[in-house]
Amino acid sequence: MESQLKGNQISKEWGISSNYKFDLAENREVRLILDSIEENIWRQCGKFTEEEVEYIQEMYGVLRGNTKMDKAWLQVDRESLNEFIETINQYEDRAKLLEECK
């Protein structure tokens, strides 16, 4: 809308036919670049930090390893949890990933 108003203003000032349509491509290019940067920042902010991963691992370990069987499987479970966190940090739609894991 803004570019159209600017185009109309330039048309009047320069005496250009009103049939001519201005396409201010540089504005569109800048907008696309900014949209791309914003999306990348959004994705990076959605990833688990090292602190969050450690907290999740601590929560996962609560009341674990009390029995011989649980001790035997604890390391396997931790490796599985780490693999899951690594996978989910690379996935764009975590809710969809969780649905696929069911």
Look at the helices and sheets and give the structural class.
Answer: mainly alpha
Low-confidence stretches: none
Overall spatial form: rod-shaped
First and last CA, distance? 46 Å
Instruction: Tell me the radius of gyration.
Output: 27 Å
| Quaternary organisation | single chain
How many helices? The count is 5
Percent range for helical residues? over 70%
Average pLDDT for all residues: 79
Number of strands: 0
Reported for the largest beta sheet, the result is: none
How much β-strand is present in the residues? under 5%
The H/E string reads HHHHH
Could you characterize the architecture of this molecule?
The protein is mainly α and 102 residues long. It has helices spanning 2-14, 25-45, 50-61, 68-90, 94-101. Helix 3 packs antiparallel against helix 4 (68-90). It is rod-shaped, with a radius of gyration of 27 Å. The mean pLDDT is 79.
Secondary-structure map:
Layout (H helix, E strand, L loop, with lengths): L1 H13 L10 H21 L4 H12 L6 H23 L3 H8 L1
Helix pairs in contact: 3-4
Which structural traits does this protein have?
single chain; 102 residues
In short:
The chain has 5 helices and no strands. With 102 residues, the chain is an all-alpha fold. α3 packs antiparallel against α4 (68-90).
